[in-house]
Amino acid sequence: MTSRRSKIATIFVACLAELMVAIDMTVLHLAIPALTAQLGATSEELLWIADVYGFAMGGLLVTMGNLGDRFGRRRMLIIGATTFAGGSLLAAYAPSVWMLVGARALLGVAGAAVLPSATSLLRAVFTTQRARTAAIGASSGVSAAGFAIGPIVGGLLLDHFWWGTVFLVNVPVTAVVLLVARMVPESRSSRKLRLDPLSVLLSIVGIIGIVYAFKSVFYAGPWSLDVLLAFAIGGICLIVFARRQHRLEEPLIDLELFRNRGFAASVGSNLISVFTMSAFALINSQYFQLVLGWDPLRSGLAFVPGALAALLAGGVLAAKVVWRFGRAWAVSGGLALAALGFGLYGAVTTNSDFTLVMIAQVAFGAGAGLTLTVTGDTILGTVPRDRAGAAASISTTAYELGGSLGIAVVGSVLTAVYQARLVLPDSVPPDLAARVQESFSATAAVAAGLPEPVASAVRLAAEQSFVGGIRASMLGSAVVMVVLSLIALRTLRRVPKVIENPLDAPEREADQPR
C-alpha cells in the first residue's frame, strides 16, 4: 500500500511538473520584443525560437513515455526535471540566437520526459476511481492555470529584469520538484519491455513532420512546398509506424487500445478540445493586447477567472460529476459549457464590458477543466497499469497536435476574415495599406504616421475587421464543440463510471509503487 505521505508527494510533484511545462509554453511570447532587440533575431529565427520547443516535445513524447514504463517513471521525471533546469539556465544566458534555439530544443526534450512520467505516476499511485479522477483533475487544473500564470509571471519579471529571467523562473520550481520527488514511490512495468529503434525513429520523424506542417500552415500557407513536404514525410512515417506496431510482439504503441471505445473517444475528444482551447487562448491574448490595448501583465491577470474555474471543475467537481452522471454526460456537459463560453465570446465588440468576457472565460474554463480531467482519467483507466507511461504519452501527443492544429487553423480563419472585411480609406498610401492588410498588429505603427482623421479611420476599420474575425472564429469553435459534445455523449455512453481494467495483470512486486 502507498502511504498518505507518498500520495501527497506524488500529486504535488505532478502538479508542479505540469505547471512548469505550461508556464514555459506561454512565458516566452512576452519576451520576444526584448530578446529580438538584444540578440538581433530575424523573423525566421524567432519562429525557430518559438516552435522548436513543440517540435522536440511532440516528437519524443511517445518514446519518453515508453522509457518511463521500462526504466522507472520517477527516474524519468527526475532526469527530465534536471534537464529542464539545465536548459532553462542555457536559455537565460544564451549569447546568440542559435544557442537559444538549442536551449529551447533541450527544454522540449525535458518536457517530453516530464509530462508522461508525471501523469503515469498518478495512475500508479492513485488506484481507486475517485482518488485517481481527483488527482488527474488537480493536475489538469494546475496545467490550465499555468497558461494564465505564465503571462503574469512574465509581465512582472520583464517590468524589472532582462528577458532571460523568464527562463530562470523554472530553476527554483525544478529544485522543489527534485526535492519532493524523493518521497514519490518508483513504479515501472513488471514486464521486460523492449524498445524497437526503428519504431522510435519513425514516431519521432512522423510526429515532428506533422507538428511542423501544422505550425507552418499559419505562416507559410497550406500549399507551400515546406508544408506539403512535411505532411508527406510525417504521414508516410506514421503509416509505416502503425503497420510495424501490428507486427511487433512489444509495440511502442499498442494500437489495439484504440479498439476500446472509451480510450479512442477520449483521445479524440482531447485532441479536438485542445484544438479549440488553444484558439481560445490565442484569440484572448490578441483581443486584450491588440484591441483593448492592455499591457502583458493586465492581459495575464484577465485569464485568472477562467483558470480558477478550470482548477475548480477539474480538481474538485470532476469526480463528483462522474459519480453522479457518468462519464458520457460529464464530458458532453464540459464540452457544452466550453461551447457556451465560445458563444458568449462571439458577441464581443471593440468596447464590450469585461463582465461579458469574464463570464465567457469562466464557462469555457469550467468546461475545459471538466472535459480534460474526465477524458484524461478515462485514457489512463482503460489501459493496463504496465503501459501507463505509453498511454500518458498518447494523451499528451494528442494535446500537442491539437494545440498546433488549433493555432494554425483558427489563426488562419481569423486572418482570412480580417483581410476580407477590411476596407481602408482611399487616401491611405498603397504600401501602408498593404501593411495593415497583412497584419492587424501593424495598425498602430501605420496609423501613427498618418494625419487625422485618416489615422482614426484606419484604426477603427482595422479594429472592427479584427473583432469580426474574432467573432467568426469563436462562433465556429462553438459549433465544433457542440458537435463534439453530441458525439461524446454517444460514444462514451457505455463507458462505466468506475473503470476496472480487465487487462491489468495481477499486481506483482515490480508493479507496485515503491
Q: Helices, strands, pairings?
A:
Blueprint lengths: L3 H36 L3 H29 L1 H20 L4 H29 L3 H32 L4 H4 L1 H11 L16 H24 L4 H23 L13 H31 L4 H6 L2 H22 L1 H19 L8 H28 L6 H34 L8 H9 L4 H6 L5 H38 L23
Helix pairs in contact: 1-4, 1-5, 1-7, 2-3, 2-4, 2-8, 2-15, 3-4, 3-7, 4-5, 4-15, 5-12, 5-14, 8-9, 8-15, 10-14, 10-15, 10-18, 12-13, 12-14, 13-14, 13-18, 15-18
CATH architecture label of the largest domain: Up-down Bundle
* Major sheet description: none
CATH homologous superfamily identity of the largest domain: MFS general substrate transporter like domains
CATH topology of the largest domain: Growth Hormone, Chain: A
Strand elements, count: 0
Structural class: mainly alpha
Characterization of this structure:
The chain is mainly α. The chain folds into 3 domains: 1-189, Growth Hormone, Chain: A (Up-down Bundle); 196-251; 256-501, MFS general substrate transporter like domains (Growth Hormone, Chain: A, Up-down Bundle), CATH 1.20.1250.20. It has 18 helices and no strands. The model is unreliable at 502-514 (pLDDT under 50).
